[in-house]
Specification:
alpha+beta; two-stranded antiparallel ribbon; 93 residues; 24% helix; 6 strands; globular
Length: 93
């Protein structure tokens, strides 16, 4: 049985360097909202910094929509699927 790490290692990301498909407000004031994203993202792309700000790297996004459902219009300012031929490409491993 493959581990989740091994399965993710077979995943390919076509990163659209010119268009971030997800944008966040790193200084959103509600810590509970930010922690939802830190704890729920299956790719661990949301990170809380020592100063309380939030960082996010869309390049490894699995496009699951968890952050969109949890926080669109709050911490998450924009969420859309990447442009054609961009984004995650799942491959059987």
């Amino acid at each position: 049985m493959m581990t989740i790490e091994a399965k993710l290692a077979t995943t390919r990301f076509n990163v659209d360097e010119d268009n971030a498909h997800i944008e966040v407000d790193p200084n959103y004031p509600d810590m509970a909202e930010k922690m939802k994203l830190v704890n729920a993202c299956p790719a661990c792309l949301y990170r809380l910094q020592d100063d309380g700000s939030l960082t996010f790297d869309y390049a490894g996004c699995l496009e699951c929509g968890t952050c969109r459902i949890l926080s669109l219009g709050k911490v998450v300012k924009k969420w859309e699927y990447p442009r054609d031929t961009q984004g995650v490409e799942f491959r059987e491993g």
